[in-house]
Design goal:
Elements: E1 6-7, E2 10-11, H1 18-28, H2 30-39, E3 44-45, H3 46-53, H4 58-70, E4 74-79, E5 85-90, H5 92-110, H6 112-128
């Protein structure tokens, strides 16, 4: 799969690549990343997941979960009890995606010192102009 806007010399911005880009956007969105990584540990109820992630509004978490569910990455299990109980977990596809996202997050964490140094160097060059 190519992520660029050209495949075999044809422009695919509006057609072929759109579905790939949308899924990539969903998986790598601010809240999508955190939801996927958190759900790697275990299933969560909505309120538990919201607390575990922190600083996410109810609306944004709901939208993120619905998007990931639609993409086949998250499973929503609504139990017919009172009060209602809804658990969220990863599907096999979601688990695979979450492992990839977690690997990127771990890489970012391990390389943060180099990133900070690069930023300092960049800022120093910009100030020197």
């Amino acid at each position: 799969m190519a992520v660029s806007s050209e495949v075999a010399g044809k422009d695919t911005v509006g057609a072929v690549m759109c579905p790939y880009r949308l899924v990539l956007e969903h998986v790598t969105s601010r809240w999508g990343v955190l939801v996927l990584i958190e759900l790697l540990d275990r299933p969560y109820r909505f309120s538990e997941l919201r607390r575990a992630i922190g600083n996410v509004s109810e609306k944004m978490l709901t939208q993120t979960l619905q998007t990931l569910e639609r993409d086949g990455l998250v499973h929503r299990d609504a139990k017919p009890v009172i009060p209602p109980r809804v658990d969220y977990s990863l599907t096999d596809l979601g688990h695979e995606a979450a492992e990839q996202v977690r690997a990127l997050a771990l890489w970012t964490e391990s390389r943060m010192g180099e990133v900070e140094k690069a930023r300092e160097d960049y800022d120093a060059r910009k100030r020197g102009l």
